[in-house]
Each structure stands twice: as structure tokens, then as C-alpha cells.
Design brief:
- Keywords: Methyltransferase, Transferase.
- GO terms for molecular function: methyltransferase activity.
- This is FkbM family methyltransferase.
- By secondary structure, this protein is an alpha/beta fold.
- The protein contains 10 helices and 10 strands.
- The strands form 2 sheets. It has a 7-stranded mixed sheet, sandwiched between helices. A 3-stranded mixed sheet has the order 4-6-5.
- Helix 8 links the parallel strand 7 and strand 8.
Length: 232
């Protein structure tokens, strides 16, 4: 399925015009294809665990084409880059969790692996990853962000990549009240070669909230809300 989608994208006029993916596995181009088919030219977004303004970003593509959204990055060193290079976005130096609190954030030398999850940080150390340090970071529930910055309406696109903390965040969303049209979430456990075990419980949970899995790049799953996709 994913090969067919990518082949269709490669044939599109946008890609032939030189537009380049910023995502790890082309997720942004797949998401753009979905929104284009549904007539959404500049989708809004919230990117949780944004990490870098452009490198391995699922939202940089949309920012460059005029979309605006919210980037959430708990690492204070990394959020500075968003303030500099994504100035038209809302950039927040907080974490997202299942309660409002101040929690320990494990910062790895490979900053893409930094996490609030104690279990995940221990697994990463066992896998040979080097811990740079621990810092205290404010964590808030996602509904507070939606209330404060989005007028109680979820942005079109939700991206979540928080190293073992994804399900904790997803479970706090009240999908019956407001929900994203498209969700891009890390779908596999960590593996140095990208062959980690698939997080079927997470994907099944999102599907139970009225979504279906449009594409799976192995590392990430892209799910589309059924009423958005089929509402012709």
C-alpha cells in the first residue's frame, strides 16, 4: 500500500516541481497528498515533540507553503531554533502529558531520542545510547493548549513523536469533542535499523476513535478521520 501511495506522489506535479520532503520517511508528502485530495491547501497543525524546525520535521513542509501551527518541544536548547526559524508559528517550551506537572526529562546526546518516559530511557541506555543529562520540564495536558491557542478547536494535523510517551498523550484527547483530521504518530518501538515492534495497541486505539490507517511507513503511522475522508 505504501509503495503505491509514494509512486502516486512521485507522479504529482508538486514533486516534479522540486518540492522536497523534510520528514524521515516522506510522511509530509503523504499527508499533503491526503489534504490536497480533500481540498485543504494550508492545513493547521500541532507538532508534539517537534525537535527541529526543518530536520526530520513533519510540519516544515506545510510551514513553507504558508500553513501555521503550534510546535511543542520540551528541550530548551532546541526550542530556540523554532523561535529563530519558525517565527510565524506558536513555539512552546513545554511537554505534553496526562496531567499538569513538572517532570524529569531525559536528554540524550541524540536529541531525537529524549523522553519523559523512565522505561524508555532505560531501554535506550541498554541499546547503547548515551544520556546527556536530566532536566525538570513543565508538562501540561493537550486540552489546555487547544483551549488557549486554538479556540477549543483541534488543528487539522496532529503529529506526535515523543519516544514512548505517545500513547499517554493520545489517551488524553477527547475525540468526541474536537479532534484532528489527520494523525501522524510514531508506530514502532525504537530500533537502530528501523525494525522495531509495531505499536498495535496505539494504532488500534486511534482507529477505535473513528480513524483508519491510510499509510504506514513502518516508523510512523498516518491515520485519517473517516468523516473527513469520506465526506465528499
Amino acid at each position: 500500500m505504501i509503495r503505491n501511495i509514494i509512486n502516486r506522489i512521485k507522479k504529482s506535479s508538486e514533486l516534479n516541481s522540486g518540492i522536497v520532503s523534510h520528514s524521515q520517511c516522506g510522511e509530509d508528502l503523504i499527508i499533503n497528498y491526503i489534504f490536497t485530495l480533500r481540498g485543504v491547501v494550508r492545513p493547521s497543525y500541532i507538532d508534539i515533540g517537534a525537535n527541529h524546525p526543518y530536520g526530520l520535521s513533519n510540519t516544515a513542509f506545510f510551514y513553507k507553503k504558508g500553513s501555521r501551527g503550534i510546535n511543542i518541544e520540551p528541550n530548551p536548547d532546541l526550542i530556540k531554533l523554532f523561535h529563530k526559524y519558525r517565527r510565524k508559528d506558536i513555539n512552546l517550551n513545554v511537554g505534553i502529558g496526562n496531567r499538569d506537572a513538572v517532570l524529569e526529562f531525559y536528554v540524550f546526546e541524540d536529541n531525537t531520542l529524549s523522553t519523559f518516559s523512565e522505561e524508555e530511557h532505560l531501554n535506550l541506555i541498554k541499546a547503547g545510547k548515551r544520556l546527556k543529562g536530566k532536566i525538570q520540564v513543565e508538562v501540561v495536558m493537550i486540552n489546555r493548549i487547544i483551549e488557549k491557542y486554538c479556540n477549543n478547536r483541534f488543528p487539522d494535523l496532529l503529529c506526535v513523536d515523543v519516544e514512548g510517551w505517545d500513547f499517554e498523550i493520545i489517551k488524553t484527547i477527547d475525540f468526541t469533542y474536537t479532534s484532528p483530521k489527520v494523525v501522524c504518530v510514531e508506530a514502532a518501538e525504537y530500533s537502530p535499523i528501523g525494525a522495531g515492534e509495531r505499536r498495535t495497541d496505539l494504532i488500534n486505539y486511534i482507529e477505535s476513535k473513528g480513524y483508519y490507517e491510510y499509510a504506514n511507513t513502518n516508523l510512523n503511522s498516518i491515520l485519517v478521520r473517516k468523516d473527513f475522508w469520506y465526506n465528499v
